[in-house]
Amino acid sequence: MAPGILVNGFHDSTTPSSTLPTRRRPYPHEGLRFDPKLKPKSYRMTGTSPDSKILFLDVNILDSTGNDPYRGDVLIHGERIVSVGLVPDVEALRHDPKVRVVQGRGRTFMSGLGDAHTHWTWNNIALELLGDIGVEEHTLITARSALCYLDSGYTMCYGAASAKDRLDCVVRDAINRGTLPGPRLLANGREIAKREGELAAGITAFAEGPLEMREVIRHHAKIGVDQIKLSMSGEAITETVSAEECFFTDEETAACVDEAHRNGIRVCSHARARDSVIQCARHGVDVIYHASYTDEEGMQILEKVKDRVVVAPALNWLYATVYEAEPFGYSMEKAEQVGYRRELETAIKALKEMHKRGITVLPGGDYGFAWCPHGTYARDLEHFVKLLDFTPMESIVAATAGIAKLFMQEDELGKVLPGYYADCILVDGDPLKDIAVLQDHSKLDVIMINGRIHKAQPTEFLNTSAVPPSSQEKKSYFNFVAFEDELGRSRIGHLDLGDSTIQPLTMASGSPLASLSQVIELGDEGVVRAAEAPFPLSSVKLLPPLADRDVLCIGENYRKHIKEYRESGFAAADNKVTDSPQVPTVFTKRSTSITASGTDIYPHPGFTQTMDYEGELGVIIGKAGFSIKEKDAMDYIWGYTIINDLSARERQRDHRQYFMGKSPDTFCPMGPVAVEAAALSGEIRVQTHVNGEKRQDGTTADLIFSIPKLIETVSSGITIQPGDVIATGTPHGVGVGHHPPKFLKPGDLVEVSVTGLGKLSNRIADPGSKNPTIDRVLQKPSSIPTYNLDRTWGGVGLTKVGPDHYINVRELGSQSPDAETIVFIHGLGANLEYYAPLVQAAGLERTRRYARPSVLNCYLADLRQRP
């Protein structure tokens, strides 16, 4: 242990042997003293067991006090940090099986990050479209944004505005109850603006004059917000409300601050313009957003009141709009034309000066737009270093202890000290040497919130020296199941084989998973449980795990099965079946034969009278490979599923090959689940029952050609791909092997069980039933590009709007070249008939030419780019 470190983690400046440097001057946020009428919010997060103990050994502790990092240990008990640096009885703790121990190996242990300008309700689309999103969908968007912040290592978010009144509040409360995962949040409501001065009408609470503004603020307080936002100046991208114009009067700003503070809530303000910054400073606005056009007069006023005001510039929005928006249709030339380049340069100069004068400047980048998307929040810390001349330590302290001060909880948030909440991250790297490492989510090895582990690899907690193997915590694996949701969309969930319920799964960002192929590509860390509750398996339609590719099948891979098939009389006369084949027999089943567990099997009455079952283990490939060696083959396996290789024996015999007899529609039931390879170990047993009678029973130990050998064989001339399925062969006991044969007949229930994979169940349908495959194939979407209402090749006949968008325009009414044109625009679900009464009543069809464009996705902002 380094000398001079006390148990509480503070440096002991009186210890002669200490070589650590003393602290620099105080940080600006440490001098903040908000209005005495404002008090810290008393929210508590629930869900952390008071008995939980987590010990981090040998970590590089960056405690956000401003001191240099130092090596030591950290003990967390329940929701709080107990010891930092020197942990009492550390040897006993590391051998206690009830303590989860993480070997730090010198990685950086620091406070979770914070954002001073958070928009959870923004979802990377145009601002003016947010008001059109239904409240149900918008709630899910808000919850997904919260999860994305936590996935990015952020544990404190200061809400800057919500697109609807209560979205921030509802999700904040759900997180605090432990219902949803997410950071700590101070919630905001709809931003308050004057008419003609708003940024986007659909997300604005309008108010005119001091009295109406006070009433709106009282409404916001009643619904439970923690702060309100004033939209005091414009935004260059609107091209209608200038970023250099202030729309509020001194009287209005003063009234808003007075009313908010009387109700115990703080005030933040969208204030780019010079005059808006001055008003904010004069009248006690707590948080000024942007402050781009602050001049010397404003700077002097800010310096005088720096003990009660915070500036959060949202620097990444400006930077990205100037330098990174072109791929989204907003060129650098356009950004320069409307003034963003000048604003960025002016803002950088002003913010550097604020930093020199000791004004508190905190990070928060206005994330949630197309070129400033969720998940990239830590870019602000790099901008502070590279653009504003902060040191990496200053940037990190601002994003941790500084945000904690904004929360008015600087004594329990934002630092790694005893008594503080355990909102922490373990970083594989040194952010003081490379601040950008905090942007790499793969380097955030452990993320904790309120003492709970949100993200960590299972191997982080393997403490083989302390815990016997039998008592080590085992990883729980998902039983991945594909199903249709209520809108008919493919989704992926976890099937609990015990109580037959499905827990929906999502990507780490919160986006729903649509296929097992996405699961395979994302890997372990990319899949999480959705916030919604599990639902009964019986309430949804199951889909096969993988259905878009022919299945690779292996014949003659169990010796007893070879014997029974050879003796059945159904082997082709020239097919020399031997007990000891030298190479595997490989064939395919067409993808149209794949069907799900629980579906009926079409019996093909005019095609076969010898339908037979073959229960098999299916191997799912996880990565592409060619000419794979047997010793390396297991590395290419993602997981396993169950397959019933149904067969038409006479077709198999008469065609002297497998394909026709193996590929009839619905002859490849697959599922119900797919699991990762690590979930299954040792021998895997395959059993088949027909109407409750056990017919087949074998294990992978009976295989002639092992699974690695099969992969070597198949890949010797074929590139295998992620999502390929290899059916490994069937044990003896098939119908054709009985005397007399026991072929399947309508009404029979066939159940194939495999160790750890549940049961694949299908019933043979009535001969008079309809083949379901033809309808499924006919319902597949067209491969021809579809633009709006018309189907065209390459957009012929459509009007081009922007670089990649086409619309179908119908022109009606007068064809006179002198007639004025009126453009009617509608969204999805509407049509021209909506406007017919208006057109007819006004006689427009006689005097005007009117055009109706069909906009594909209602992104009306694209129309601004029309030629």
UniProtKB/TrEMBL annotation:
Region (Disordered): 1-33
The keyword Transmembrane is annotated on this UniProt entry: no
Domain Fumarylacetoacetase-like C-terminal: 551-764
Amidohydrolase-related domain span: 111-453
One BP term from GO: oxaloacetate metabolic process
Single Gene Ontology MF annotation: oxaloacetate tautomerase activity
Superkingdom of the organism of origin: Eukaryota
CDD domains the record matches: Met_dep_hydrolase_A
Keyword Metal-binding: yes
Keyword tags: Metal-binding
Pfam families according to UniProt: Amidohydro_1, FAA_hydrolase
Family: Belongs to the FAH family.
PANTHER family: ACYLPYRUVASE (PTHR11820), ACYLPYRUVASE FAHD1, MITOCHONDRIAL (PTHR11820:SF7)
Protein's name in the database: 2-keto-4-pentenoate hydratase/2-oxohepta-3-ene-1,7-dioic acid hydratase
Natural source organism: Aspergillus oryzae (strain 3.042) (Yellow koji mold)
